[in-house]
Description:
By secondary structure, the chain is α/β, with parallel strands linked by helices.
Amino acid sequence: MDAPSSVPDPIALIVVEDSRDDFDLLIARVRAGGMPVVARRVETAGELRRELASGPCDIVVSDHHLPQFGSFDDYGALFDAITTALRP
């Protein structure tokens, strides 16, 4: 019988962020807190929709305002992805 692992499963994280530096800082802070993370960065609504459709996601973190996309737009993309996934 295998001993239980003390390392938690990685968090699947999508970050809506136009700054690579801000993205890297966020990921570093999550990892410094002891959480393994698999992160993907997107900058547009289309990219967010593709990432949500491409595989599991535990958390979406968003910059509030991007040049072409912002946190209020994220809610629409999330709602669309969830309702699509729940359709029979």
